[in-house]
Amino acid sequence: MNKHLEAAQNAVPEIVDYERRKALVDAKLSELPSTGSPDDAARAVAADAVNTYLDTGKWPADAEERARAAYTDAVAADAIAGELVSLRSQFVSGHELKRIVLSHAPEILVHLDGQLQNVLEAVRKELGALGGVRTAEDAVNASRAALEAYRRVVALVPELSGIREAAWTMLARTVDITGPASPLAHAKRDGWGHVRGTAVPDAHVDDVAAGRFTLDHLVWLAQEPDSHVPTDASEFIEARQARRAALTDDGSTPREDNPYGDAPLIIDMTTVRSRNE
Description:
single chain; mainly alpha; 15 helices; 67% helix; 0% strand; elongated; HNH endonuclease
């Protein structure tokens, strides 16, 4: 799992408790001795008693009691193992975890936003020394302070990438329609979901849409006061739709009859038939 998403999920007590319970079930199953069926357990005692009788001519006085105890112990062990196996199968299916994660999606996204803010704050501390350095070539020809700042900021680019990947994963779980033609995908490709209420600059759109993050983008993001991880996909989907539906003064933003871009049109045929009847 993406380490940033894992950390965000582990900040939710209900998810932590779920993982704790799962680990306890696995641990207990690994401790249980391998046992046969209750009938097999009783027969093993009976066979031992019969062999003793044949060898000595004396029937063991506690044979019936031991057979009964072996049978009862095996029934109990089988019931315990069965319950644990049933629980483990539920954990393996992951259905309950998915429900819990989805119910706590806003909290997880808030935690991811906290991770993002920590990264951006670290970048802001380097901006003075970094200056206009944006490439390795720039850094080599810059001062030692700029070179060191460059190295520290470059090391944060994968962190940004991981946080965004985690955020898109969570946001996709909160919407009803996903896929390349969905409103979420269109908003992502247009550069929304990074800065509150606006899209990233045109020069960054192709990279961020493909999940490629650069030092230049990270520096720009650190200087934007409204950089964030959104907690609600509808927030930036609606902003994107409103922007594309409006005509700018110079006509550079075309009006879209369908605010979902080229998303498929879904028609409720029940409604159509009722209108025609």
